[in-house]
């Protein structure tokens, strides 16, 4: 083949190949939907990425327990006060019976009485044990609780300075092992039953004494708590 003819053939082939490439690009552009460049780049990058599996948020339990109480039980949580501004709290079946939000917590010993059969609160009261003579009224309040009652007691600030013998005996009669060990600003929580017995394994009482070396707050020990699940009685 002559050189001139060979050159012409190569030029024709190049033009044909260019037209085919252009037409292929045109068809590809028509078949692929319009996408922003950033979306296309993100899609390419995400091809090799593994999906991120997120664990569901834990379900909140009654009285902020970590695990739910079994059926046919009452959830409770008792928290003593801590320092000057950490108020005591009594929670029963996810209802705050005594606490800062309910506005019925104060210095001294705070008490809530609950009907064991119905699970309804029947009375709440606080008794200042730093000023005044409130041991007598507190004794009457405890002894007036009907049979088949749950009694919840928590301290805020000082609960011992004016705690007299009559109220100590009344609390001892409910099963307290620590009421005579109370000191100035001791943190104390106590769960009692009147007219029936609680199961042996239930958390009922804790005390934490003020110690200038170990105190969490200046002049006050750390707050303490007990919590658990109380089997319901027959209705």
Automatic annotation (TrEMBL):
GO cellular component: extracellular region
Keywords assigned by UniProt, alphabetized: Disulfide bond, Lectin, Secreted, Signal
Superkingdom as given in the UniProt entry: Eukaryota
Localization annotation: Secreted
Gene Ontology MF annotations: carbohydrate binding
Disulfide bond as UniProt keyword: yes
Pfam families per record: ILEI (PF15711)
Domain ILEI/PANDER: 107-195
Predominant cellular place of this UniProt entry's protein: secreted
InterPro entries: FAM3, ILEI/PANDER_dom
Family recorded in the similarity comment: Belongs to the FAM3 family.
Protein's name in the database: Protein FAM3B isoform X2
Organism: Balaenoptera acutorostrata
